[in-house]
Amino acid sequence: MTTAHSSAARQSTGLHEPRRYAGSLIVLHWLIGLAIIGLLALGLYMVGLPKGLPIKATLINFHKSLGLTVFLLVLLRILVRAVRNRPPLPPMPPWQRAAARTTQVLLYVGMVAMPVTGYLGSSFNTYGTRFWGIALPRWGWDDAGMRHLFFGVHRYIAYAMIVLVVLHIAGAFKHQFIDRDNVMARMLP
Fold first, then answer.
1. What is the full DSSP assignment across 139-169?
2. pLDDT tens column, 105-156
3. How far apart are CA 106 and CA 37, in angstroms?
4. Which residues cross the membrane (predicted)?
């Protein structure tokens, strides 16, 4: 079925693809995106602070709470996206479509893996995790090796997320200002 024919078929049956994301997905996108950029910046800043500095413990607890909040928002976003249609990508070469899909999938993997590895790393120390002041269960014991493993994975995912966020933003700008296909309008409020 040709594109024109399938478009006409959708219109005649009342089915049509949305041109923009649903409002709930737009709000979640921007909340999560801004929070992730903030979490990455905060994470890079706080690891450079000396041990024992009182503000470091406060920043770490804030980082954990915000990270787990973003995790819950990402789970909500995945659920909303499963039930809401999304607008189709504009016409583009197959390699660009594959790059966009791959970046998006890896961003979702990172958005789930980052908080999980951070939480597990915190579970293998005596402090554990406090979620906005509420102590969460620990899934381990005081074990420096396991803590190092999970926090090491957490750190590498953070670096990967920085690259993916930059690619995502660069791709959006490329489509908006070079290709001029107005792809950003799909996700703007």
1. SS-S-HHHHHHHHHHHHHHHHHHHHHHHHHH
2. 999 999 999 999 999 999 999 889 999 999 999 988 899 999 999 999 999 9
3. 16
4. 21-46, 66-84, 105-122, 156-173
Rounded-to-integer distance, Cα 28 and Cα 38, Å: 15
| Residues 171, 128 contacting (CB under 8 angstroms) | no
Residues 86, 178, 99, 163: what is their CA dihedral angle, to the nearest 10 degrees? -100
Instruction: Give alpha helix (H) positions in the chain.
Output: 3-13, 23-47, 54-83, 94-123, 144-173
pLDDT in tens, 27-36: 999 999 999 9
Please write down the long-range contacts of 37-45, taking CB distance under 8 Å and 24 or more positions apart.
37/165, 38/66, 39/63, 39/66, 39/67, 39/70, 40/158, 40/161, 40/162, 40/165, 42/66, 43/158, 44/158
Which class for 4: exposed (0-12), middle (13-18), buried (19 or more C-beta within 10 A)?
exposed
CB 77 within 8 A of CB 30: no
Of 59, 157, 81, residue with least CA distance to 116: 157
Buried b (16+ CB within 10 A) or exposed e, 38-57: ebbebbeebeeeeeeeeebe
